[in-house]
Every structure is written in C-alpha cells, then in structure tokens.
Amino acid sequence: MLLSFFIPAALTFAAGVILSDTHNFTVKRYEIESDKVRKNVRFLQISDLHGMNYGPANQKLVAAVKRLKPDFVLMTGDIMSAKELGKSIPDTVDTAERLIRDISADFPVYFALGNHEQRVKWRPEIFDFSYEDMMKRFMDAGAVILDNSSVIRYEGIGIYGFSLEKEHYLKTKKIKPADGFLNRALGNRSRSCYNILLAHDPEFAEIYAAWNPDLILSGHYHGGVARLPLLGGMISPKFRPFPKYSGGRYKVKDSDMIVSCGLGMHTIHLRFNNPGELVCIDLRKKTEIGKE
Ligand SMILES: [Fe+2]
C-alpha cells in the first residue's frame, strides 16, 4: 500500500526535477582574491551550451549576462554541438554564433575550444560545413578565439586558451598530455599577470596546474549529469563513475580551479539535481576583501 503511493510519488518528483534542471539555469557565484590584479574584475564563464536556447534566441541567458555587467565573458568550449540525436547540428552553430554576437555587442568575449568544436575539424567528412567557416562565423560575431593562444588584459590578467588533442578525449583509454605539453602549446605564462587558463576538459587538472596558472576554468563534465549530495557528479563523459572534478571549486597544487556544470546537454538530454549554470567570478584585489 505504502509502496504503491511512494514509488509513483518518487518517480513524479524525479521527473519534475529533470524537467526543471533541463530547462533552467542558475547563476553560480565565486569570489577569488589576488594581489596580482590591478582592480576588481568580474567575469563570466559560459560552458557546454551545446546549442541550447533559454527562451527565444537565448534571451534569458543574454539578459542574465547583461544584468551581471561583467568586464568580460569567457567561453570554455562546446558552445555548439557536434553530436546530436534529433536536433540539427547547424542549428547549434547558429545558436552559438547568435549568442556570441548578442554578448559581444556589450562585453568582450574570449572563446576556447571544446571537443565538439574540434570534432568538426577532426571529422570533416561527417559535417556539411567546414571548421574554418564555423570559426570565421564565431570571430565575425565578435569572439576572440583562443586556440593555444592568449591575450593580456590591462587589469593585469592573462587569458590563455588551451586545446587538447583528439587522443586525450578518447573514451577507451586515458592518454595524458606529456610533460611540458602546456609550455609547448602556450609558451611560458606571464610572470606579472593573474593568469587564467581555459582548458575544456578538467581530467588533466594536475598537468594544467604544473604550468602554474592562477586559475583554471573547465567544463565538459556537465556536472556529472546527475549530482548526489556529498558524492557530487555521478558520471564523466568517459563513463567513469564519480569523477574527481565534476563541478565546483577545487585547489590543484597552487592553482584555483573552477569547473562549470555547463548550460546544456547533447545527445541524451538529462540533468538531475544539476541545473545549468552561468558562472560569475569576482576577482578582487587582495586588500579589498573585507572592506565592503
Ligand atoms: Fe566537452
């Protein structure tokens, strides 16, 4: 009798959570202090949108970005989707391009690559548009593409976009980037700046931290799809249970790392206890903390 009530009630509740989490996003705020920055700076991280729309033409997402008034916006890959069931991949490129255009009208946008953008380059035979055309559209829309490259901003902030090679995303085996990989891809980090490394896949956090960035921003895991209290995200894109860096804030060697739970999904559209998130980071001059 009790079971015949509780099982349908639990299933209805779970369906409601999934429906809500796959259609809504929250603003996840972090505060970091550093004596390296010249002024207080706010920046946003948009990750793993996978061509999703929050409201017509992503109006809800764009409005949230404008409300937060960031100094700049960092996109950490998989903004479009190169793998979909029942959804048009070119539509996801259109959505990414429009979002870049709408945000970059007001704020600088820096764009690092995820495995979905890179898949268009790695598997050109399965797409009816080229990687070069797609990236030109993103640049023309206003994105600064950071594909193993960097920019130095006037606040004393260096932003580096790191692109992993295809073999490091293989689901069948773990191939770590070799020692010195980041130095070869990006050169030495700036010694005077607060350095932010945009690295889509958090799996190799210890290798990124060996390069000594002040902050690593990643995504890719979609929060582990379903999140459990205390245990965190349940599964990684390589189908490993309870991955170490599924979402949130971490300390890896001397680097801070923030892993976004992302804003979208691809192929199987599922999130549980894990709404999409727009990450907002306030980076403050060390002496400013506690004065407000
Ligand atoms: Fe990804």
What is the topological layout?
Layout: H1 2-21, E1 25-34, E2 41-46, H2 59-68, E3 72-75, H3 89-104, E4 109-111, H4 115-122, H5 131-141, E5 143-145, E6 149-153, E7 157-162, H6 181-186, E8 194-199, H7 205-209, E9 215-218, E10 227-228, E11 232-233, E12 248-252, E13 255-259, E14 276-285
This protein binds fe (ii) ion.
Describe the protein's architecture and organization.
By secondary structure, this protein is an alpha/beta fold. The chain has one domain: Purple Acid Phosphatase, chain A, domain 2 (4-Layer Sandwich). It has a six-stranded mixed beta sheet. Strands 6-7-8-9-13-12 form a six-stranded mixed beta sheet. A two-stranded antiparallel sheet has the order 10-11. The N and C termini lie far apart (57 Å). The mean pLDDT is 92. It binds fe (ii) ion.
